[in-house]
Amino acid sequence: MMTSISKPFFALLIALFTLAGCSDANIPQEGDKYTIIPTPMTDTADVIEVFSLGCGHCRNMEAMLPELQSMAKVDIEKVHVTFNEGAQLAAYIFYTGAIQTDGKPSKQLVKDLFAYIQDSDENLSPEEKRASLEKIFNQYNLLSPYELSEEQHKIVYQQLSDAETLVANAEIASVPAFLVKGKYLIQTSAHENLEDIANTIRYLNSLEN
């Protein structure tokens, strides 16, 4: 003879199923909020922002990055794309600063480099552009791309090569993009706001490789 289920127990079951449903709804879904890249990589930072100094959306994201890091409770490393000749030039400028600051150029330097790439007067002569770039680096007691030693140039070229490999493996076609654990590519356009992106970063960063 089947034992009848009491009303309080049945109500508890309904409540548990309801809570489970709400919880699942908050879990970022593969194919929607993120994808698994074709060629996962090891020995990468937990979270990487792939960006370009020539990208206006990246410049806007730069201003929000401290808040995003705080929300996601993680440090975010930066990798500059090398899509084309212009991006390669900007990447060389960025990595010139990066190799002299243990890979973490100051936020103000990055802000100034965004401005140099995006706001410089097109009518400036090559000499004036060079002087402007040297002034930016020198005010942070750093060498400009024109002042690097041969060994430092080689290090920058290696950074460019590593960035190109990462972007190719992840099949990144637009920026800004966020790569988590060298495996998960976040679809930024599928997120409603910064907290939504942070939630996806926290979730993916908690997954076992």
TrEMBL record:
Keywords: Redox-active center, Signal
Cross-referenced Pfam families: Thioredoxin_4 (PF13462)
Signal peptide: 1-20
Superkingdom field: Bacteria
Classification via PROSITE patterns: PROKAR_LIPOPROTEIN, THIOREDOXIN_1
Domain Thioredoxin-like fold residue range list: 46-196
Protein name: Peptide permease
Organism: Photobacterium lipolyticum
